[in-house]
Design goal:
Oligomer: single chain
CATH superfamily of the largest domain: GAF domain
Number of domains: 2
Keywords: DNA-binding, Transcription, Transcription regulation
Distance between the termini: 61 Å
Order of helices and strands: HHHEEHHEEEHHHEEEH
GO molecular function: DNA binding; DNA-binding transcription factor activity
Region (Disordered): 1-24
Largest sheet: 6 strands, antiparallel
Shape: elongated
CATH topology of the largest domain: Beta-Lactamase
Strand content: 15-25%
Protein name: IclR family transcriptional regulator
Structural class: alpha+beta
Number of strands: 8
Radius of gyration: 25 Å
Strand order of the largest sheet: 5-4-3-8-7-6
Helix content: 40-55%
Pfam families: HTH_IclR, IclR_C
Amino acid sequence: MESHENENPGARRARGRPRGWDDKTAQNTIKSLDRAMEVYEFLSEAQGKALTTISTEMGQSPATVYRVLVTLEGRGLVEFDPVEQVWHIGPQAFVIGARFLRRTSLVDRARPILRKLMEQTGETANLGIEKEGAVLFLSQVETHASIRAFFPPGTLSPMYASGIGKALLAEMDDDRLARAMAFQELSAFTPFTITDADALRADLAQVRANGFSVDGEEKNLGMRCIAAPVFDVNAEAIAGISVSGPTSRVSPDDIDRLSAFVKDAAHALSLAIGGQADGRS
């Protein structure tokens, strides 16, 4: 057996956690810090609260809550309004949140979600964004089935004939949608492509109401796609997640079942990038 007695400690791999890091018992937690975070999270959900209101609603003593708030205030995480005599989340909370957003990669965050979606549905899962009036596919997890959709990263597709494209168009306000459609020639790719502007608007209204879109052989015959939007911190739809597969497996009867998985995946990715699960909430 190889000896490590003379191993250089400086050469050892740095640890992100100590041994036993998964032990969540009381000995590995700081009760005062945990209590402080409870107060902080409570205030973040119910801003503009007086000390007595916070202590009463949380079931904590005013003295304990006050010590927590003053400590957080010293770090800029909360601030006190002396006129209204209420507490708010402070500017440092935004600074820390912005640092999280800078390290967040949409594609990296999406990969495990796409893989789970593929496993749940048995169909290819896709991630796409709007790029100069088209859908740009960023990532894909392919199904194991022999017949499958294939949109490699970098593929572009017209928004009006794409599940992800229609999911994003449906979340645009009237002015932005009008501008987007002004540069789109609604050409027919199949007999099912929507080529009438009024019909497309009606379809997008239904997409918005449902929270998901369906591309029913509108770009490729024999293929159906179901998509839902992903929202960022500003409640803007910045991406879409979809599943796509042959109509023999993705039939109209399957839409309700599959759309639930797709919406859940979009919801999960929205939260993973620090966004809102529903841009209208």
